[in-house]
Specification:
Pfam families: F-box-like (PF12937)
Protein name: F-box domain-containing protein
Oligomer: single chain
Shape: flat
Organism: Trametes coccinea (strain BRFM310)
Radius of gyration: 34 Å
Length: about 575
């Protein structure tokens, strides 16, 4: 039996002509088909036009030319684009194995050898420095265990090319290797160096590399762990990005040196300060010895500030600077396990906190979180509200957290109030979310919070059920009642949270016998005091699943019927993953 003739593949046949370069009608156009308003000639013209557009597009994209037929310059640009996604993994080196032509293009293109990472083997460094041909290079040595022979080989390779180093990274694990780096930087000039990253991954006393301005005139980014930043004011003023980890702060003079360094970073744009090793007994003592500087320095160009230190040191640093309100701020205080006190956010902020952190007075949305499995709390603030879908502008401007690994002490309502007092100057606050324990909700002075934030319109309380059986939902509604609670705060026409329109109670809230009556009375009093048709726009509550579905449906119907004239939308639903 004769095999059917294979149809030509238009994508593979190079001599295949387009069907409309001649007047021959293609078979599929000559076959009878459905009636149409276009004549055969019109259809032929339309298909010729479309085919001409495809040919023009193929010519524009060079799709008819194989990649190896491209000019070497264009092929190099394509391969550089492929390489740009995974510089650190060195997967682009596999391109050398494709063919001899690719090997030649890559080997003779200096741009391919501008980033040279190596790990205890200097072969790539040797090859890359030879093939980069005078262009600026980035050298990264990820691991050195103090091998003198390897360090000597590395320094010998880099020494002739120090004038074209753009960035340099070294990680060492011994004081001896740090000393070799110290001597190397002190004896070589690097006029093109823009970024320097040195990490001493050891508990030994740090070394201070001499980085005088005349040797590093273009240096703008430093990332140092275990190395001291030189105290030269002129050098500090040229830095734009500083990531500095202080491991050995033992005396008051060390704190004073750190404060003086931060005060001289007048042009810094990103600043990260951390301290790895600490002891609670010595922190307060060394800060007390450090004399505070006169006046504050405004870091006008600062876009991001992050501090991970003990609360006294953070407070000392904030007392000497002013952070622009547009900066992203993240403050983290890590408490040792044996610290006698509970972590507190107020301990890290100066008394005049809005002077050093003006963003505190501009927050419109905030979240207070009490950690469940740690001794700690966190405050997150935004200067713009999220959209309805939760994906709007998320300009994170303030994070302040204090965490300890000791779980022996239970968080109380004092923690919530401390976090709220840290935001007491946020008079523009409109949305507040609190994630805490039931005991924290029951003991917090909510009316004082409502009085401090009169523009609050959205309140979400997400609780974690404690072993204590407390009617926390009733307590919240009583605090919102203008005819109940502290007479000094609710006297006259004052209403707690007069602009509150959305109240969401998330978590295993308990429905008690008096909850509906207390809620209805509270909402009626608020509506009467405020002179509005409705007390709230939305009241949403999650309840415990162990009520049973029948009991839940009865309670839901009762809430909706009794509160429909007081609330625009009443939503009562079971806690997720409950039956």
């Amino acid at each position: 039996m004769k095999k059917p003739e294979a149809l030509p593949d238009p994508l593979r046949a190079e001599n295949l002509r387009g069907p409309f370069y001649s007047t021959t009608i293609t078979p599929h156009l000559s076959m009878p088909g459905s009636s149409t308003s276009f004549s055969r000639a019109d259809l032929l013209d339309m298909e010729r036009e479309r085919y001409a557009e495809v040919i023009a597009l193929r010519s524009l994209l060079n799709s008819s030319i194989t990649i190896n037929q491209l000019p070497n310059e264009l092929l190099a640009e394509i391969l550089l684009h492929v390489r740009s996604g995974d510089l650190s993994t060195l997967r682009w080196l596999n391109l050398l194995l494709v063919c001899r032509h690719w090997f030649y293009v890559i080997a003779t293109t200096p741009s391919f050898w501008s980033f040279l990472p190596f790990y205890n083997n200097a072969n790539l460094l040797r090859t890359g420095l030879a093939r980069s041909k005078g262009t600026s290079v980035d050298v990264s040595c990820s691991h050195t265990f103090g091998d003198d022979a390897f360090l000597s080989e590395t320094f010998a390779l880099i020494q002739p090319h120090t004038t074209r180093l753009r960035s340099l990274k070294f990680e060492c694990h011994s004081p001896e290797a740090a000393l070799r780096l110290h001597n190397f930087f002190g004896s070589h000039s690097m006029p093109r160096l823009q970024k320097l990253k040195l990490r001493l991954l050891s508990r030994a006393q740090p070394m201070q590399p001499p980085l005088p301005l005349q040797q590093f005139p273009d240096l703008q980014q430093v990332d140092l762990v275990g190395f001291y930043i030189p105290p030269s004011p002129s050098f500090l003023q040229q830095l734009r990005v500083v990531d500095y980890t202080e491991n050995f702060m033992r005396t008051g003079s060390d704190v004073a040196a750190l404060v003086n360094m931060v005060r001289n970073l007048v042009n810094v744009e990103e600043l990260r300060l951390a301290r790895a090793a600490s002891r609670a007994s010595a922190n307060v003592a060394i800060v007390d010895v450090a004399s505070p500087a006169e006046g504050r320095v405004t870091l006008h160009n600062l876009r991001s500030l992050r501090m991970i230190m003990e609360t006294p040191i953070i407070r000392q640093l904030l007392s000497n600077i002013v952070v622009p309100p547009t900066s992203r701020v993240m403050l983290t205080a890590n408490y040792p396990r044996d610290h006698p006190d509970l972590p507190s956010i107020l301990q890290m902020l100066p008394h005049d906190k809005t002077i050093c952190l003006p963003v505190l007075s501009q927050l419109v949305s905030a979240t207070v979180k009490i950690y469940y499995d740690l001794r700690g709390l966190e405050v997150t603030g935004l200067t713009s509200l999220l959209s309805d879908d939760g994906f709007g502008p998320q300009n994170l401007d303030f994070i302040c957290s204090a965490v300890s690994m000791d779980t022996s002490q239970v968080r109380t309502a004092v923690d919530v109030m401390d976090a709220l007092r840290a935001m007491e100057d946020a008079v523009k606050l409109q949305a507040l979310t609190i994630k805490c324990h039931t005991i924290s909700v029951f003991g917090a002075a909510w009316q004082a919070c409502f009085h401090a934030h009169p523009m609050l319109c959205d309140l979400t309380l997400r609780i974690r059920l404690d072993e204590l059986d407390m009617n926390s939902a009733e307590h919240v509604m009583q605090q919102l009642d203008p005819d109940d609670g502290d007479e000094q705060i609710t006297s006259g026409d004052t209403v707690p949270g007069p602009n509150l329109m959305f109240l969401r109670l998330r978590g295993p809230w308990r429905i008690t016998e008096n909850l509906l009556a207390i809620t209805k009375e509270c909402l009626e009093n608020r509506r009467r005091r405020l002179g509005r048709q409705q007390a709230l726009t939305e009241l949403s509550m999650e309840v415990c699943g162990f009520l049973g579905m029948d009991t839940f449906m009865r309670e839901k119907k009762a809430f909706e019927e009794e509160l429909s004239h007081l609330v625009g939308s009443v939503r009562l639903h079971l806690q997720p993953d409950s039956t």
